[in-house]
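In response to a reviewer's request, we include the raw inputs and outputs for one of the modeled complexes. The two entities were modeled together in a single run.
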Amino acid sequence: MSAPRTQPAGLTKWAVTLPPTLFLLAFFLVPALIVVVAGFRETGEFGGLAPWPQVSLDAWRFLLGDVIYLEVFARSFLVAALTTLICIVLAYPLAWLIARSPKQRRDVLVLLVILPFASNFLVRIYAWIMLLGPANLLYTPLAVIVGMVYAHLPFMVLPLYTNLEKHDPALLEAAQDLGANAWTRFWRVTFPLSLPGIFSGSALVFIPVLGMFAAPELLGGTGDILIGNLIKEQFLDNRDWPLGSALAIMLTACVLALAGLSAWAAKRGMHGTEAIT
Amino acid sequence: MKSPSAQRRLLAFGVPAVLLLANLPASAADTLYLYNWNNYISEDTVRRFEAHCGCRLNQDYYSDNEEMLAKLEAGAVGYDLLVPTGNAVESLIRRQALRELDKSKLPNLRNVKREFLDAWFDPGNRHSVPYATSVTLIGYNVGKIQELGLPTDTWALIFEPKYLEKLKGRVTVLNSQRELMAAAMKYLGHSVQEHDPARWDEAKRLILRAKPYWAAFSNSTYIKDLAIGTVWVAHGYSNDMFRAQQDAAAAQRPFSIGFATPKEGAVLAVDSLVLHKSGRRPDLAHRFIDFMLAGENAADVSNLIGAGNPNAAATPYILPEIAANPGIFPPPAELKRLEMLRDFDPKLRRTLSRMWTEIKVR
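The model returned the following structure tokens for the whole complex.
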């Protein structure tokens, strides 16, 4: 009886997963491969790529033979790390508050967190131009960080909230009964349990910040160039697809390495929490 | 069994597809497709043309030559007309993407000023008709500049520390490698078409020396910053300065915005109307070009956005205060000092891009 029932289920599974798989193949994998190929070609006379058949390591030699590009990478990672850290500090109390508020109010509060997405990103950045301008903070590195944190905060709040909401209040009561004070209860119970939320939130903030070019362009001063700006410039202003592709590949490689690292760390974090529960 | 989620997913796929189909033009008959800069033709002119030719004018917009070239390169078809700047015209001609003009259908071509015909990017105007011009120059807060006793007719204003000391944090320059480095080259007395990397290196050092005094690299926000008074001096395009001037006046600010072409020379941009090969209605496209070459229609682009006008017949229709502005209409003597940007070979492009990154990082 069970065999004929599982077969249609398998078919349904295919029917459901095939379109998104095809979509990702066509619009993620193929463009990614084009970028990889472009990174090993030469620039055409009027932009684009030189005609086939021709491969070249020129872009890579140019990129790796020069510390200046590494400097931009280092700076971008610093900005992304700082943004992520500030997001954690700001989002944690907020997510905790939402998770601990009465059930019927939580949905409204979550809605308020994502409400800013209802307006266009550039409009919100322009709002910051209006706010920071009179305070003489516009066109500074601080303005870039403010814009980045503002734009990415919800991505930290939501996974944290999802995580914190699931915590069993009985755990904290038990800790209290065992004589733990408020700080110890947070540090030894809540915080370790919330690590998976922090990790997924951090990935959702850190990675997009690395590629962001609009915020530094609009809010930043004369020295605030990030890797996203550099890549955008190669494609849109300088018509140097190979160098732009090489930069993009390097960024993707860094991000993948980091994602792997954080997945590994999250796994370890889970093991840690298992030990506590 | 079809699960509800599968249905929903199909719906999510189907709905956008239907919307996409609905977006296609119902009929391509008698519709002219124009791929144009933002805000380059007034609604009024569009309506007059539609009445004149008994057809529809459909516009798509771009804000950057590279954006337009990239979209065409990626295979966009169906545009009858484009409005590229000089170097983009050259690039399109070299890629054989343009249709040759039939000048027998353009009697108004005689209205174009001689100095704008036969340009390097299209000798003999076989493919292009000049439509509007702009100059990359210096815009400034008139009150502040007078108060500080600074000159406005030289690039020294944005490059020399002795002037910049009084302007620290109140200056923006274009976030464009070609434009900013061209301004520095002009100040140093070199051509913007220089091929010697050593000369460009000189320009880079000049920029690095001035950079600590600048507030930001800005391609668009300077319009607002000038108009509200937070920035006093900006390197930018004449039509943008015109807009900042209008905005400041409309908001009744206690100061006014002026702009002037530095005496060392500057970059001139000439935007031309060209026919794309993929266009289906070259007949309508020719009628449009000829219509836009008539004085009263050509004047629009100057009156509306403060662009310079290569059309002699337009002069009587242009508002006197705009026609008299040397920042918008460079006098003949000044025109000789202006240079257009041309594309470099890939190697020099990469060298300059490397310098630009260094300028940004240091």
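As requested, we also summarize the result in words. Chain A has a mean pLDDT of 88. The first helix of chain A runs from residue 2 to 38.
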